[in-house]
Amino acid sequence: MKTGMSKARLLSGVVAIVTLGAAAPAWAQDSSAQDATQASPADVDDSLTSDIVVNGKRERTALNDERDATGTVDIVTTGDIAIRSQTSVADLAKQLPGISVSRDQGRNQSATGEAQFVSIRGFDTSYNAYTLDGMRLPQIAGSSRAISLNLFSPFAVGGIAADKTPGAAKDSDSIAGIIDLRTPTAFDFSGNFVRARALGQLASLARSRKQEGTGAAVGVDAARRFGSDHQFGLYVAAYYENRANAAESTAVQNDYKATNKTTQTVRQVYEAGGSLSADGVQWNFYNNEIKRYGASGALDFKSDAVDLFARVNYATYNNTNTMNQTGLRNELTSGQTNPNGGAYNAAGVYTPLGINPASYFRTEDVEQELFSAQIGAKAHWNGFTASIEGAYADGRFDQPNRIEAAFRGVAYNGAAGNTGAATEGVVVDLSNVKSPRPVLSSGATAYISSLDRPTQLYVQQGYDYLSETKKTVKASLGWEGEGLLSSVSVGGLYEDSDRDGRSLAPDNTRYRFLTPLQAGTVQGPSIAQYGGAVINGFLDYYPPRPIKVLSRSTLDEQVATYVAPKVISQEILNQGLTKGTEDRKALYATATLKSGLVEVMPGIRYEDNSFSAQYWLSDSDGARFVNAGRDYDHVDPSLLVAWRPDNRFVVRGAVRSSYSRPSFDQIAGTTKISRDAESNAIVSITQPNPDLKPVEAWSYDAGFDYYGGVGRYFQLAVYYKDLKNIVVPTGTRSIGETIDGIVYIRPTNGRTGNAKGVEASGRFTLGDLVGGGVLGNLGVGGNVTYQKTRATYAITNTDVRTTSLPQAPDLIYNAEIFYGGGGIRANLWYNYTGRILATVQDSQPDIYVQPVGELNFGVAYEVTPNLEVGISGRNILDQHTYWATVGKGKTYISNDRNGGYMKTGSVFQLSLTLKM
Prior knowledge:
Blueprint lengths: L6 H30 L23 H9 L4 E5 L11 H5 L5 E4 L14 E4 L7 E5 L2 E2 L22 E5 L13 E6 L10 E11 H5 L5 E13 L5 E21 L4 E2 L7 H6 L4 E2 L3 E22 L3 E25 L5 E2 L17 E9 L2 E16 L2 E24 L12 E2 L5 E3 L7 E3 L2 H7 L7 E25 L4 E20 L6 E2 L19 E3 L13 E3 L1 H12 L6 H6 L1 E19 L2 E22 L2 E25 L2 E12 L3 H5 L3 E4 L6 E5 L8 E15 L2 E13 L11 E4 L2 E4 L6 E14 L7 H4 L1 E17 L5 E4 L7 E11 L2 E10 L2 E4 L7 E3 L2 E13 L2 E8 L7 E5 L14 E3 L3 E9 L1
């Protein structure tokens, strides 16, 4: 696959940055003493790591930024590896009030143990705007407008800011708010330095299963101020991380069935309190190897007349992911009959027959890459300011190697020779809600436990590729005065995006082996004949059919031998092609009015959007390429108010209009065809809808801050959002119609929705209340968000429902105990996210993700003024990482594609931070 960017250009940029970093020690030796005298200690933090938590309080400059903002902004610094074992930026963002995280479960991303997407106040991730140093990022997640943050490393990102009430000067396609990742600059530090950070990790679950579970990371960064007045600043950073982990999950095989025969749907039975029965059961084991590496740099010039800056960032994320599955399927095979004539016996009770021991293998390798560059200038004269910025970003999401292999054979049916009328099937005991277990006879257990059966059914390979380049120019002109009209600013933006997407579903390359179930020319091997090892444990219940981690090299050889030579028709290839362009233009005007202690910021913003695309469409008129395009605009007024009676109190209020653009794959994505696993017949076709309207919202926010001294503050906010034209982005069904037995699924706008909530955060250090000393360095902190959401939308033309908003938990909280003094820093941090609606379904109950919690700890000791050693642990209580259920309750665990019940184990870390 092409990368969508020049490798030579990237390599030269990275080499230049690393070379500058290598030279940095000389800068520190030459001028660190004189530079330290030029810095303003009130504005920067000069601790060992410069962006860590010190004496139990958040980095002071971040808290000052929150206090000084007119709107509601929450900021967390990310560079502290000593007491934070998270190397994913998204996981670090969970510390902020109202921030929850999610993953692309369809690509096994829950199995990495890392968060992927960040959500503000529980809104779907597509309702966020994502920026890097204030400029928009290209789509690099593979679907929707959400940006996958697993690309970014705390070694190169200095902080994360969640702006929950952005004014007219910022992007208004941000119903939830704006997530801004911030690159450090030399002006963020008190003096010149070179810093090296290194860590080693151990994933306990992987090691207990005798799988690879170690990891390491190293990052080097440096800052230098130079020039006659130290008006120049240069910051550079480079990092590399490589770690491995394992995960295990259990789930049911297929959708649930009503226990008693009925004409109602399973959803209707569930909602009426009826009983459901599981159809098959399965167990999954995952291996991941994650690599992150990249570099960043910031060059700044500051003077009374003009400020200049340049930023460059390069980041790569690779995940080599495999899933080995063993399962028991309810099905009869050739020569076997069902005496009931169907799924239900004569009494109308669901009676599964046939026990087919099955194994399945899948890779979900992911490669992501991002390059971005920004330049800008801001001039000042006589109260006037003029600024201009330009940015270029190139992002790539690639799944070059999606291999699938299935093993199926003759089912066990309880009869002699496994022929004739069946007497046994997979009855699933659901009494343990986290661990569905089959009820088997001794004969069935002996049959299904042998890895000599069945043999391989098929092998297949597909791919996904998506790239986007984004070019942005924005400018503004402002004036500042001292009267009632304190400032005025007008500005505009032009943003252009070019997209290229290609995909090939693995089903379209299937090579079928010779088995008792099908014709073929080559006999497929059994699981026992594959290289690999059987794992030695599994959750709290080892399955009766062992799980073997297969050798990838054998499967790679099969792909090269049997799949690669296959000729794929041009029509099949066309189904996965998409090309498109999208541009956004904006104009805004805003002012600041000050009267006494009150600051009022009215503003208005106009944004105009257009897109054009070519993609493959298959419908009743046939299959062909179509051209689609649409223009739509939006006017968004806003009003932000802040009252500061003294330096301890801030009272805020905000009213603003905003919108959310439909994701590109919803308006111009590839056609996705779903086929029956056995017959290969088309079951459904999912198509884009270029006529989708943007979601619109009005938001109302009010807040109160109290700052009571060093290490003590309290923040309270309430909010209400009113939405219309909502799209349910997680729905498995939108408005659809059936033509010739095929269901055509198209996204559609729903009705209305709303969210109302309250959130509070604070920290309290004992300090002088206990006379200082050891107890004075102890404190507590945390935050809590509680909300209620509602959404009304259409599943079909006749099925209109009201539920909570997808992905929006009712409750999110963090609680922390911390200590800082005598060269020791320590914290114990618990994060909790409540139940969320994950997937909207039609005839089946909706999928929910049950509450998840995580307890983390960290201790760091300052060995010398320039060296700190840390030890930390993540998820030390070994709680589940993901738990999806059918319906709100915990009774019915979901099927595997929705996650089931998953654990990734605890992770322990040892770190060193050295500052020169």
